[in-house]
Structure to design on (140 residues):
């Protein structure tokens, strides 16, 4: 298991290499990227903040749960914090498994659970202002 909160550009190739194994027939990779629009507004950039110790712990819990719920071999997750420009990668999830269905399902589970339960907050900077965007909720 490789789970990390980072402040620098995520090395996607490194994460793919971390999940490679002779026993796998599938590697699924999810890249979350900064887009230039949201809710009809032109987004200029994003900023991610987190409660790092808790975010790290929650990411580890999600990945541990993923190993229990899906037939996967290896998982690598990195989420970036700080200021990101349009097109930059904010999160990478790489999952390997013997068969593709498990890696697809596990990858989707990881990103959906991160959005709901990891204390990472996103601020959008757009033409004319800025706004904190929904996501993590401490009630979950």
């Amino acid at each position: 298991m490789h789970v990390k909160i980072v402040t620098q550009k995520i090395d996607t190739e490194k994460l793919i290499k971390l999940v490679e194994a002779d026993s796998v027939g599938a590697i699924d990779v999810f890249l979350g990227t900064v887009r230039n629009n949201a809710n009809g507004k032109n987004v200029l950039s994003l900023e991610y903040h987190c409660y790092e110790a808790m975010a790290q712990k929650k990411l580890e819990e999600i990945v541990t749960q993923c190993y229990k719920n899906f037939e996967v071999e290896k998982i690598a997750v990195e989420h970036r914090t700080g200021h990101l420009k349009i097109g930059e990668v904010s999160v990478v999830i790489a999952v390997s498994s013997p068969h593709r269905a498990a890696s697809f399902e596990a990858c989707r589970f990881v990103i959906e659970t991160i959005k709901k339960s990891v204390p990472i907050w996103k601020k959008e900077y757009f033409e004319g202002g800025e706004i904190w965007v929904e996501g993590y909720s401490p009630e979950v």
